[in-house]
Amino acid sequence: MNRDEFAELAVSYLDELTAFALRLTSNAADADDLVQMAFERAFRAWSTLREPGACRTWLFRIARNAFLNERRARNARPELQLVEFDPLRDLPVVPAEAVERLDARALEEALSTLAAEQRETLLLSDLWGFTYDEIAEITGVPTGTVRSRIARARGRIIAHLGEASEGRRRRRRSP
Amino acid sequence: MTCAQMREQLSAWVDGELPHDLTAAVDSHLASCVSCRTHARSMRALKHVIAQLPSREAPPGAVRARVEGLRFRSGRTRVARAVAWLASAVAAAALVWAAVQMRDRVPPSSHELAEELVADHLRSVPEVMPAEVTSQNPDDVRRFFAERVPFRPVAPVLPGARLLGGRLCRINGTRSQLLFYETHGQTLSLFISPAPLDTEGCEAARGNHICGRMVGRLALMLVGNLPSETLQQLLADAAL
Ligand SMILES: [Zn+2]
User: Fold this and answer.
1) Which of B7, B49, B61, B74 is most solvent-facing, going by the fewest CB within 10 Å?
2) Residue A87 alpha carbon to ligand 1 centre in Å
């Protein structure tokens, strides 16, 4: 792959990287800066990329690392890690039809209840279609961790939907 | 396999990420267990609804121009013409970029904002820069902005003015709508932002007028080379 071929390929992922950056930063101005920073880095290091097929994964990883470096520089405090209950243990039964009815807003709300790394892993899988191995590459964790994060993210969302519909039912019963 | 062990595997099974032997075990459990089958179906439904969220976002023109510019920075194979064209595109984009940066840092006074919006109007009307959505149909225009702005987008009908299209812009760092209309042989820019702005009334800047009106929680700011009374009347009659 020569530089022109790399450039052509990399720029074709610009819109996806922008959406990913918006998810990471949740702020349009920071996302724009992040996208530029990521592409600047990628264009400096493009010759280390051997395989064109790995380009998309590689760009997502660069963007994510750039974001983490920025955040670390801005905010030196270590992040608080919460020990979460295992949502898979008492998973409520939520029919698929109830999940299919979710509109974008309700889905975003459910996603917002996830821990950041669960949400990120789930979106890399379901929104951008990366495989578990590719997500491991992007996020720098073992594939087993990716598998478990995705399972727990889904369990958490389904548990959230179960609680929400339980809440509605209870409100209906007691006016 | 028990149902509890099953839950661990179901999610990877939905993704086709289980090794063969486990896949077979899950298949046979699902064949005989209604509750795990329901879980599998709801996990798959979840995967489908997430896949329908937007996975792409058009970056602002300035960001695209900068990224495109990286292509040519040290490439020696391109003809000088391409570089020259790009240099001018980047220069134009840098102007927009500078304005955006400035707006992000401090909320500008209403006069500064008026100046900037007029400047944006002058350099982004469709005659100068192609619109991102070109349509006279308010539904098409609204659809373009859905998911791109953090509020329910609108495409007001201005009596006597024809909708041309629009593009994404940012005001005080918030993604906002910029719509174009044509009336009396002039192109008008209508900025629509969810940010609380000091917008009531009209101002003059660079030979243009800008008038503002709050509609619900949205600030509408109409810019053009027409008398301020005309702009104000158009805004007053605007039907969301
Ligand atoms: Zn079971």
Assistant:
1) B74
2) 16
Domain encompassing residue B124: 110-236
Which CATH class for the A3-73 domain?
Answer: mainly alpha
Q: Residue B127 Cα, ligand 1 centroid: separation in angstroms?
A: 63
- With an 8 Å Cβ cutoff, are A132 and B66 in contact? no
B7/A158 CB distance under 8 A:
no
Chain A to chain B Cβ contacts (< 8 Å): 131
What ipTM does this complex have? 0.86
CATH class for the region spanning A96-173:
mainly alpha
d(CA B172, CA B195): 8
- The model's pLDDT over A71-94, given as tens digits with 9 standing for 90+, comes to 777 765 444 444 456 777 778 888
This prediction has a pTM of: 0.58
Which of B55, B85, B104 is the endpoint of a domain?
B104
Report the distance separating Cα A151 and Cα B15, nearest Å: 10
Total residues found in chain B within this entry: 240
Chain B hits for A11, CB-CB cut-off 8 Å, are: 67-68, 71
Q: At which of B104, B131, B160 does a domain end?
A: B104
